[in-house]
From TrEMBL:
Residues 30-44, 56-67 have a biased composition (Low complexity). It comes from Sulfobacillus thermosulfidooxidans (strain DSM 9293 / VKM B-1269 / AT-1). Residues 30-68, 167-186 are annotated as: Disordered. This is Uncharacterized protein. It comes from the Bacteria. Residues 45-55 have a biased composition (Polar residues).
């Protein structure tokens, strides 16, 4: 049951991004507060004070793809497909801040040297799906809907909520029809043990016949890796911890979940600035999703946050 719960949440996120309907699940938590810090949270945060994550203050200068251009009034380079998508959104009267990745976080096969975008949005929400293609395609090309899942580079999106509290609460929200507990909180009645994830970070490994999951906290962020074996979950968690030791995620409340699904490590990162929730999704890798999240910049200014 628990394993089905976590897999269902991941699939709901994936399907919502790919179908271009926006991110999120509709039912709110009873409280608009994030989970209370656990013992692991205090250990991680106290470690961070002595081993702070380095802030990469200089925006990335290159994309994984060769076709990039420099945005106006900014040293950040956005991929051409990203610029096309952002221009589309600017013309469709989006009333929330636009943010986009300056690093796509995916190295395509040799035959796939182009990126193409499929975008929808209006008012207070937008979703952009990025694909690796063997030749340049126009924005929202019908060909994109025929490509296999493995050609998805990733997605990024944003949605506005009525208040900062409701936006923050949405990070820890679940679908009650398929969930036994809100995501990014400890699963109930599952044996747990502390694990060393490296760089002074201590996590918790949950494991029974239905679920294996590693969970930890860094600052205001909560992380989960699940659906592998306990060893696989810990190894993937350690890769994320190692990357984040020298790269800074958005400095606000956020969550990152990596589902070791067999056909890819489907990963979603979500965070909140004010009343707006931003997210990125990567079909292939947790670290690649983290790279996209780290590289997110306000479009077109290139500022780190709105």
């Amino acid at each position: 049951m628990l394993k089905y719960r976590y897999r269902s949440v991941s699939l709901l996120i994936i399907l919502s991004l790919i179908s271009l309907t926006g991110c999120g699940i509709s039912t709110a938590l009873p409280s608009h507060h994030s989970p209370s810090p656990s013992k692991t949270t205090h250990q991680s945060e106290s470690t961070s004070s002595t081993n702070p994550v380095k802030n990469s203050s200089k925006p990335s200068q290159a994309s994984s793809f060769p076709s990039t251009v420099r945005s106006q009034a900014s040293a950040v380079r956005f991929n051409v497909a990203v610029i096309q998508a952002m221009t589309y959104l600017q013309h469709h009267k989006i009333h929330i801040p636009l943010m986009a990745p300056s690093v796509l976080g995916f190295n395509p096969p040799v035959s796939s040297l182009s990126a193409a975008a499929r975008v929808t949005g209006g008012g207070t929400t937008y979703v952009v799906n990025l694909y690796a293609t063997s030749k340049p395609l126009t924005l929202n090309s019908p060909v994109l809907s025929t490509l296999p899942m493995m050609d998805i580079i990733g997605s990024f999106s944003a949605s506005q909520f009525p208040s900062p509290d409701s936006a923050k609460a949405h990070l820890y929200q679940s679908n009650p029809s398929t969930s036994l507990a809100p995501p990014y909180q400890p699963p109930p009645n599952v044996p747990a043990s502390l694990v060393n994830l490296g760089y002074g970070i201590t996590g918790t490994l949950y494991n029974n016949a239905a679920l294996s999951m590693a969970m930890w906290h860094e600052g205001e962020w909560t992380f989960q890796v699940w659906d592998g074996t306990p060893t696989q979950d810990r190894q993937q968690a350690m890769k994320l911890v190692a990357y984040l030791h020298t790269h800074l995620l958005p400095e606000t409340y956020g969550v990152l979940g990596e589902n070791l699904a067999g056909d890819g490590n489907h990963t979603t990162a979500e965070w909140v600035y004010g009343t707006t929730e931003f997210s990125v999704f990567n079909y292939h890798s947790g670290v690649q999703a983290a790279e996209m999240a780290v590289s997110m910049r306000v479009y077109p200014s290139g500022k780190i946050k709105p």
